[in-house]
Every structure is written in C-alpha cells, then in structure tokens.
Amino acid sequence: MAITGEKGNISIHTENIFPIIKKFLYSDHEIFLRELVSNAVDASQKIKRLSSLGEFNGELGDLKVTVTLDEAAKTITVSDQGIGMTAEEIKKYINQIAFSGATEFVEKYKDKGQDAQIIGNFGLGFYSAFMVAEKVEIITKSYQEGAEPARWVSEGTTEFEITTADKQERGTDIILHIAEDSKEFLDKFRIQSILNKYGKFLPVPIEFDGKVINETAPLWTKSPADLKDEDYLKFYKELYPMSEDPLFWIHLNVDYPFNLTGILYFPKVKNELHLHKDKIQLYSRQVFITDEVKDVVPEFLMLLHGVIDSPDIPLNVSRSFLQADANVKKINTHITKKVGDKLHELFKNDRKGFEDKFDHIGLFIKYGMITDDKFYDKAKDFCLLKNTEGQFFTFNEYREHVQANQTDKDDSVTFLYTNDPGKQDRYIQSAKKRVYDVLKLDGVLDSHFISALERKLEKTNLKRVDADTIDKLIDKGIINESVLSEDEKKSLKETFEATLNNKNLNIAVESLPVDELPVVITLPEFMRRMKEMSANGGMAMFGEMPVTYNVAINANHSLINRILKEQDETEKTRLIRQSYDLALLSQNMLSGAELTAFIHRTLDLTK
Length: 607
Prior knowledge:
single chain, alpha+beta, Heat Shock Protein 90, Ribosomal Protein S5, domain 2, 9-stranded mixed beta sheet, 5-stranded mixed beta sheet, 22 strands, 18% strand, elongated, ATP-dependent protein folding chaperone, ATP hydrolysis activity
C-alpha cells in the first residue's frame, strides 16, 4: 500500500494516559535508553526467529544495534536491522499505546518452537523517549517483500505524522531530538554508563562510539558442564572488580515450573552485613532490571553476590519494580533449596574445607536459620559451633561432647559461650578448670542465633561464661561447704552493703572454690540479654530500667577471711573496695577515677 501522507491523533486508552506515561511512568529518565535498545534487540531477535522458521528468506546481515550520539545536532539515534515496520504496523504498535508487539509476536509463533527471547512492551517502552526528547522520529522499513519505508514523527503530544521515507535497508532508526532540560544525555560518557548498566549482557551486539559494549552470551546462559572454575572467577571479577575471590558459587538453571538462570557467589564475609547487601543483579532475558531483589531472594541470601535472570519474574509496566506473584515465591523457595543443598553437599564432601570457610559462610547460615524455619531444619545438620580451642562441632556432636560434664540437676545441658574471648578470658579459664567447654559466639548475629538455638534445641540452655559464678552457671545441686558461720556471713554481707552503698547491687555471700576471686560480679543472663536487645533497638523499656548486678562474696577466699577479722575500719574499707574493684576490673567495668584509685591502692599494697 502506497503511503500518501497522513496526519491524525494517537489513540489513548484510558488506563494509559499519555502525559502519565511521559512524566510519571518511569522514575528514572535514563531508562529511555534501556527501553529503546531493548526494543531494537526485540526487532533483531524477531527477524532471526522468522528466518529460522523459513518465513524470511533474505540475508540476515549484521544484526547489531547501534547507538549514535550527535552532540551538534542534539540527537541520539538507536538503529537496528531487525524486523522493521510498515506504516500500518506503526499505527498499530505506536499510535495505539500499550498494544504490545512483542506479546502478539510470541502468541503467534508460540507453537513453532522455542521462544526467541522477545523482551517487551514496545508501545510503552517507546514512549519513554519523550521523557528526554522534544521530538521523536521513527524511520523504518519492514522485512516484508515490497514494503515501503515509512517515517513517523511526534513532538510529544497526541499528534503524529506518517509519511514515506528514504530508507534502503531493512530495520528501524529511532531518532531522539533531545530537549533542553535533558542535555545531560548528550554526553558520551553518560550514554556509555547507561549502556554499560542496562545493556552489558544483551543477546544482540550493541555498538556505541565505534565499539561493541556488551557480552552477548554471558556466563549464566552457558551450561555448567562447559565451564571451569577460572571462568566463574573471571566473571566474578567482571561484576565486582574490587572484591576478593568468592568462596564458591551456585549455577542456577531451571526451566520448570518457571524459567530461571543465574550464578550466585558466596563472598568472603565476616561481621560486615551492611557492606555486602544489595549486590545481586536481576535481569529479564539479559536486560538489567534492578539490584533490589528482596522479594526474589530470601533476606538471608541478600548477602550473596551474582546474577539472577528470569522472564517469569513479574515487573510493573515500567519494568522498574517487582510485583507480588506466585512465581516470585516459587523462585524464592527454589533458590533457598539450592543454597541449602549446595552447603550440605560441601559439608559432606569436604568437612575440613567447609570448616576452613565457616568463619565466612557461617554468617549466611546463621542468618537463614534465624529468619527461616525451613532453612533451619535443613541447616541444623551442617551448621557448626566453634569452641575457644578452634574445634568445630555440629549441634549433635557438641551435645555429645559436653553433656557428661555440663548437664545440670534438671537434666538440661548447658552450652557455655563467650562473645569476647579477650575480655572474658578469666571466666573462660575458670570454666576450663572444671573441664567445661566454652563456645565462641562473637559474631554480629550471634545474640539472635543464641536465642534461636534455645527455642529449637530441647533441654538446652545457653549461658555466657561470665553470667554467674562458676557453680551457678551449671547448677548440679551440689552445695560447697563454707568455712564461715551464718553469723559471719551475715556480718560480711552487711559490711559490704554499707561500704559499697549501691542499691543496684544484689550482694550475697557464697561458698565458692578457693581459687575463685574474692568477689565476683556478674550480670544475670536474662538482664544482659534485655540490655543487649535494648541497645540494638528492641525492648526499649529495658533501656530505661536500672541494671542490677549480682555480687558474690567468696566465703572461702583468704582475703575475705582477712576482711572479716580486720579491726581497723579504714583498712577494712580499703580491702573491700580493692576486692570489689578487682571484680569490676575482671568484667571490664572499671574506668576513670575508680580505676585510678584502684591502681593507687594496689601500689600501696606493695610498699
């Protein structure tokens, strides 16, 4: 049909009002280039598909997409040698906004073999151009034999013009005349950065400034059987050039009940949660969408790095945000399962290697066990506990290791732990004298992990090694004999209370081993946990409550016996202060003027 020249109005559907598309549909104006390049890729994929089906017998030629910047003319042009359009198709796909050419194409050819990666909503994507352009031209020639080239032009209103065009080759040129308020996009480096961000892995070559900027067959599209470790490490360096090599990786390749490919890397992570989040890139048929993948990937795996690509992840119409959908939940569940299976496989096949990596991967595992009960059930068989000697145990192994010596009078096993081996060394050494084992739980998530273990493990208590006197940490119902009478104990308690004069101290005289300190000060496990939760932003009411410490006077220590017999009240007070400050020092609670006074008293004792 000859093109005689035509003017008209773009057909606006009520749900897709043009000004909304132009101004508000896309939150980030740079998206225009992603959409136009994606459309050009679609057109290239379509002609390739038609050729494979025998419905196009001409030469395919070079199917690259070219982006051209003309700073003098203030234009950006996106060109392809794809399927092209007739004037009638322009009216159908461009003027009737929201009619998706890609959708119609896939529907037409869905029963003729594998889908050829058709990306998206051409009509809507095209109109993103008007966020940055005051005028847009389409010059196109359809692949159909005898098709007449056509030119479409609009200046950002509902008015358009279609005329014949001078174009010899099959394909489409989209020419954007950049508006005054969008001159930032007339910068070569700006265009380069946008193409690198969104088009780095598009399946058709993208040429800009004389060179191809993309890898058309990225690693995740290949078969794992064809790849070596060095391939995965090289790709990781491409994604994260400043990062250390990852610990290991998982190659995802699922085609039922949804399509999902990708590579997830386990980076080296210790106690820096916030530095490692939001590093997974989400693609849809090799088009970069976002690195906000919290709905696709479970929270605890947000620490992973890598790429996920799925055409089945539902996006809103601008492809900027994920939408709630059953497929998202299925993909989330599948990724969790794959990660769990991979960790279990590593544990079974190379226990020593797994232990060597555990300081890093333990963060992922504990995060998952805290936040996901199903993952806890899977991970409880390979999650490891590490003691202060550097030995690793599964939960069951550790229970067997300590239950003979660390079972209390109620038949509950007590796991002792330290969250700061340096500061709590005296308490650790005291425990070791009783042949008690002490776990090292000093990670950023371990306070929450401890609570999870207490909920899940039957007849098991976890107590910090400095939470009580050694005999009360694991109460076996054995009462130590005291060298003091009840009257002497009462006198001691009253003397200490009067001297220390602190209503937040719960003072008691106890029969402790002779090798314990003369005075032991502890913060009860319950109170300490409430204090930690308050510090972390939860249980705020406990942050306002006064902290009450337990002060145990060791009735069997020689210094306490000396205090009891001391007749000089000044000397008695000095010895009480010295023994109490020593207890504070052992808990890293002595500072300032009190620490200075303690040092002076200690020096006086040497004179």
